[in-house]
Each structure stands twice: as structure tokens, then as C-alpha cells.
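If your schedule permits, I should be very grateful for your opinion on a structural question. I have a record of one protein: its chain in single-letter code and its fold written as C-alpha cells. Kindly check, if you would, that the fold set down in the C-alpha cells agrees with what the sequence suggests. I remain grateful for any guidance, and I place the record below:

***
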Amino acid sequence: MTRLKPTKYKELEAELIAALTAQYVLSSVVDLAVYECDGESMDVAIPDLVVLPSSTEDVQKVMQLANKYKVPVTARGAGTGLSGGATAIMGGICLVLTRMSKVMAVDADEFYAHVQVGVTNVAVSQAAAKHSLYFAPDPSSQIASTIGGNIAENAGGAHTLKYGLTTNNVLGVKVVLANGDITTFGGAVRDSLGLDLVGVFVGSEGTIGIATEAWVRLIPRAQAVETMLAYFPSVEKGGQAVSDIVAHGVIPAAMEMIDKLTLNCVEDSLSLGLNRQAEALLIVEIDGPNAGIATERETVEQCVRAHGCMEITWASDEKQRASIWKARKMSFGALGRLAPHGYVLDGVIPRSKLSEAINEIAVIGKRHEVLIANVYHAGDGNLHPCLLFNRDNEEQVKQVLLASKEILEMCVRLGGTLSGEHGIGVEKIGQMSFAFAEADLDAMRTLRSAFDPDLILNPGKLVPTPKSCGESGARPLLRHRLSAC
């Protein structure tokens, strides 16, 4: 992609201002710096322009001008993503959709909400709460993360085990294509005829179109919810308990685990009264009708006790339940006590391989002299090793990148995959060949080109080009300079 001369960007900026007003077209050095990265802060790249639309029609105008000038467009929500998906590594326009934050309708009879994509994840559930409904995907960033970002990355969360990822909870999307055309995939009722374009779109990371509105599935609040906190003398025993619970026929809403290092950081930060002697903390939440919940609770307790559980607490009320979940939801923030930067991975392994994966991650960390804290969506084998480092120390950065590559390779080798919910972005693009044959990648490139022949939508993301592990184009990235991708 040819980089525009500064004079051409001035012409583009003038046309964007005419279309959206100067207030919503940013170009100052200070303004642009705010959008240099998403939650994956190792990869930093400054866009040439930032544009904040308020409607589908605004997005259409931006895409028409982007086509005219042939500049890249990277869509962005709240910037909470953890794979660099919203970082404008090729420069161009950063299209920030957070002004598009309306809940347009909640249909309590048909169990769906119609929303603009800049609305936050939690705001959808809040709007549906008066009908005793909610939106099931619940990433840890749900207070800030937007529905558009959830759709782009196919976000999950703690309750993915029972209720699925974003793709399982999106009925339709209104999309502005690369050429500025507006179309709709699915709708209030997810169409089962023909190609599943909703399925293609969710998780495409803004590479085949930009979502502006969505119809999302709502589900009823469970009659009963039981939340358990359990401590184990080893992470391996906790992992075995997780497998045993599922083997006994109980599918919890969530099963989350953190290791001792993370547990102690959380306790240092929040003083929740956690057991510092435990090597692992496991949260299990079961929900459903009143009839049968007691039986499931008994089964869960038997399984954890059978694997050497040190201590069990069941939440007695909503306040205690919130306190238990705080230990998990605040874990990554608490790790800031140990290092200024954390690199959070998102590999997936079969649940039965959890103990093996945990041991191998420890070996990899020691080999590269990288401190690794571990947080797991244990129920579905989604690992979140957090590699702790200082970005100003290039040798540490290089070792972190090498260790992360080995961990992702291990996940695939054990029968898993590269990402459970964070997406590929620029972070894992160099490892796509671990999971896909070249013919598979070619098919993805062909599909992407069918929607965006000029490749102006989020270039350098998701699908690697045949010639490199991740081109940084006009914005050379630290990971590429260190040759660790």
C-alpha cells in the first residue's frame, strides 16, 4: 500500500472535516498519541488521522473518502483489546466508534437488543435488566469494552463455558463495506439460509467490513446462582478437579483459576482475605432452575474435595459473590505491582491437558528468565499466562516474545489453538502457520479480498501475507525490529 504524502493527508483531512465537522477529526500530535495502541501496549503506532463518527452514514462517508485516497482504516472501540487489533500499524485513519453508543431497542418477547456498536458490553445487560434479561459474554473489560470490539475479536469471558463466545450471541450486524456500501448480515432473527455471513464477520477483526449496529441475543436471568471459592495445594490438583466436574455431568456457567503469584498480588491490592498458602484459587459458578441446583452444588463440592481441596466457601449473598469474582476480575490489574508491563497471552488447550500445559509454561518461563503469572478460564481450557516485564529493557522484551511464541506453539501441539477470545491482531499473526496450512491461509486471503480488494481495512492484521510474519509497513514495530515474531 502506497503511503500518502503529507499534502494529500491535508486534503483528506479537509474533506473529512467537511463531512463530519472539525470537532470529530483529530490530527494534532497530542490527540493522535492517545490512539497509539490498544490494551496490547508492546505494539505502538501513531495513526495519521483519528475520526469519530456518530452514525452508519458517517462511517459510510469516511469509507468513501478512504477509498478515494486509498488510505488504510483501522476501526477502534474502547481500545481494551489485547492483540493489537485496534492499533493502526499501517498509519492512515483510526476510526473510533465510541460515539455510537445507543441501545436502540430491547425486545423482551424475542430476547434480543438492537444496539450501536459503541455501546459498552455491560450497558447492554443494564438496559435489559428490567426484563430480567442480559447479554451473556462478559470479558473482564466489560465495563469499558464495546460491542463492536467484542464482535471484531469474538470476545468471550468467564461465562463462555456454558453460554458461548460473542459469535454464539450475535444475531445480525449492519456493516459498512470497504467501498462504502451498507449491508446487513442476519438481523433480529439469525438467518439459517445460505452462507453464514454473521459467522464469517464475527472475529474478522475489522478486515472485511466495519460493523455499525448489531442485534444481540439476550438470555433470561437464572432462577438460582451458586458461586464457590476453593483453594488447592497445587494448580495441577485444581485442574484435575475442573475436569472431574465436567466428567460428572455438570456444566458450570464458569470455572476460573488463578495461581499463587496472582492470588498474592490480588490480596496485596484488595485485602479480600484470600488464603495466601494456596497454590491455586478456583472459582466455580453454577446456575439454572431452582430444581436441581442443590444436586449440582453437591456434585461440584464432592469433585473438588476428591482432589485435595484445602478450603471451600460458597457465597451466601450477592455481596459475597461479587467479592469472590473481584479476585478474578481484578487479577491483571493487580499484577502491576510486580512489573510495569504485562503481556497477556490467550492460548487454548484441551481441558484434559491443563496440568501438562501449566508445567510446560513454568519451564518456558525459567528458560527465558521471564516471570509468568497465570490466570485460566479453566473450564474451557483458555489460558491467560501474563508475562511480566519492562518494555524499556529490550532484552526482556525479546525474551518475552520468544517465550510467548513457544507457549502458543505448545498450545497447538497439545491439540488446542492460538486464541480463545483475544483475537489474532498483530500479536499472533506470525504464529498463524502453527495452526493453519498455507492452503487454509490462502482461502482466508481470498475471502478477505472478495470484501476488500484494495486491502484498506485493518491491513497487517489477522491473516499473514506470504512474504513475512507480520509486516509493519509505515509503522515499524518493536517486535519486528527485534526479529522475534
